[in-house]
């Protein structure tokens, strides 16, 4: 029984060291991510990914409800920078495949 506990502790410490190294070499650059109209399958995958993310990253990802869409977006984005479909003046420009 003690061997299993020691192995678990060694594994936990190893993961913690790897995480520290990863964050040293690959600093977080995400300021904030606003997720709008997330499809059902995305939410299923998100539930798998969410536990792996560190707390700082989790706080930067915001899922916006449809009824609070414009007000939530305007906390971080000027209204004159929003596309028409989100209550702003700009036309929506589709992303074309290159």
Automatic annotation (TrEMBL):
The protein, known as: CRAL-TRIO domain-containing protein
SUPFAM superfamilies in alphabetical order: CRAL/TRIO domain (SSF52087)
Start and end residues of each CRAL-TRIO domain: 23-94
InterPro entries associated with the record: CRAL-TRIO_dom (IPR001251), CRAL-TRIO_dom_sf (IPR036865)
Region (Disordered): 1-21
Composition bias, Basic and acidic residues: 1-10
Highest rank taxon of the organism: Eukaryota
Cited PROSITE patterns: CRAL_TRIO
């Amino acid at each position: 029984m003690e061997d299993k506990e020691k192995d678990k502790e060694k594994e936990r410490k190893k993961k913690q060291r790897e995480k520290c190294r990863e964050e040293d070499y690959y600093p977080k650059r995400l300021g904030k991510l606003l997720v709008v109209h997330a499809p059902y399958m995305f939410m299923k995958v998100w539930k798998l990914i969410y536990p792996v993310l560190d707390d700082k990253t989790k706080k930067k990802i915001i899922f916006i409800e449809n009824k609070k869409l414009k007000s939530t977006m305007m906390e971080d984005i000027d209204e004159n920078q929003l596309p028409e479909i989100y209550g702003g003046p700009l036309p929506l420009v589709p992303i074309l495949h290159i």
